[in-house]
Predict the structure of Glycosyltransferase.
Amino acid sequence: MEAKKNTISVLMLPWLAHGHISPFLELAKKLANRNFHIYMCSTTVNLSSIKKRVTEKYSQSIELVEFHLPSLPNLPPHYHTTNGLPPHLMDTLKKAFEMSSPEFSKTLQTLNPDLVIYDFNQPWAADSASSVNIPAVQFLTFSAAVIALGIHMYDKPGEMFPFPEIYLREYELLSLMSTLPGGKFPFDEGLRRSQDIILMKTCRDLEEKYMDYLSSLVSKKIVPVGTLVQESTNKDDHEEIMQWLNKKHKGSTVFVSFGSEFFLSKEQTHAVAQGLELSKVNFIWVIRFPQGEKISNTQDALPEGFLERVGERGLVMEGWAPQATILQHTSIGGFVSHCGWNSIMESMKFGVPIIAMPMQIDQPTNSRLLEYIGMGMEAVRDENGELQSEQIAKAIRKVVVEKSGEVVRKKAKELSEKMNAKGDEEIDGVVEELVALCNNK
């Protein structure tokens, strides 16, 4: 279908992870509501997972465009996504994505958009766009604090970060460095190539000082796009979960999830299970296993007798759960979370305080930010970064049950009211910037 002539057409290329594709799609919807035409470019397996979310309302303004990765051994098409990807194949997927630059250039020539919006690890997408005189802007689905800390550490080694509330513990720093290719901060090249501005999934109210510092580091304007929390799914589709939650008292239950890309080890699973058992708080827990490594029964991953001991107090699910729908339920009083940025935004929108258990990459920094703004509490680990079930139980009880956690619960509600009252203010600023960029090319 042809984009209407009076609209601005935008080609979006998110990284192949649900936590990136989802905010890109929500941004696409916000822009489509303001007369933009969007080409959402991703692999077949990822597009099939979001097809349902492009409803009739957006069928003319958001086109899903298939993007084919080169064929590599051990990486069949169903692995062209990070969702459920066995961890040892992550580097192979990144390599395949980088090798797809010629495919992207062809797509650009075919669609000829007015603008490209690309993700954190794609400097090559910006290069392809600039070679045919199309402006390219980076959209980061991370917190400004995370990016500012990373760029600071890379540009100013040995110099103290100007915001002492944001820091990494030694074991977190070692873990982070082990994930960086050649110890290099992966955002740097993509940030530098973004034309004039950088879009970020955040709010000025929440991260103003980190946004301003990041802007000074990269000499570009940081433009917040807001929370971009997806609309929750139809409650009727999840009747069993809703019925279980309906039986629980208001604010008495925690939702437990560690995102779509992190898989707990057996030791971690047992520590979380024991923490939930010790807390004596109701819980709904989503457990995930990598594709091809599923064990025959979720019960086999849990401590012996765990499900029997917790009984009706706990609901354990494998794979996926409607997170936004669950977090909105009145019985939910806390979210035991890995502190992925999308999860934090959802929690904030729905006024649910967080019991923080950061696992990797940006999550420890997000956890510090949460504690600093006062809507979360981290479950303390030992000096090697190992989970401690007693500390998990302690944090859950404090946030959900005890009087000392009232201040955290209150802060979560306040932030929710403030953010929901803002509506789409940020998007209006985004539209203004993007129109100006296209008009100036």
User: Anything to note?
Assistant: The first strand starts at residue 8 and ends at 13. The radius of gyration is 22 Å. The chain has a mean pLDDT of 92. The longest helix spans residues 406-422.
